[in-house]
Amino acid sequence: MEEEKGKSISRREFIKTSTFGTVGTVVLSQVPLAFGADPPNDEEDGGQYATELDITINGRHHHFRIDPRTTLAELLRNRLNLTGTKVTCNHGQCGTCTVLLDDRAVYSCHMLALDANGKKVTTIEGLLSGEELHPVQQAFVEKDGLQCGFCTSGQVMAAYAVLKRYPAATKEQILRGMSGNLCRCAAYPKILDSVMEAAK
Q: Most buried residue, 124, 137, 154, 189, by most Cβ within 10 Å?
């Protein structure tokens, strides 16, 4: 009985041993990085799960190899540096990341890039004509339709989609069409004024 007791491991010894093992694993996993080796760049090609994607963004055709889990917002921001598309909630609830998919407003943070395969995407950058603002963008400037500006690109894209559908949109059509776009600064009166001005 005494011999068996001597061979048993105490709870304290078990925790110490497992802790050292975990720390050692983490340290060893970082060794290649410490010596300057490049980490695997799965973002660029999706690794072994890479999927082909053909997409037209702001009038230009693109072909990518991507991780199938990549969202449309991640593709736009991380692969093309189109950072006018903002990500706030990352749950498809606020509209900050709104872009157009075949002229229809969508939340790009809540949509896989693969779901846009073969389709046409327009971002806030795509509304510009050289350095000239689109009339919707210009109306937001003239009517001060922003405060902090973080949600503004999503608001502009949602307004653009509404006006594509209803060129002479009424107040009710604008409010209904843009109801999914939130403004934490509560600049809604000025946003409405901006869209009404653009409708003219």
A: 154
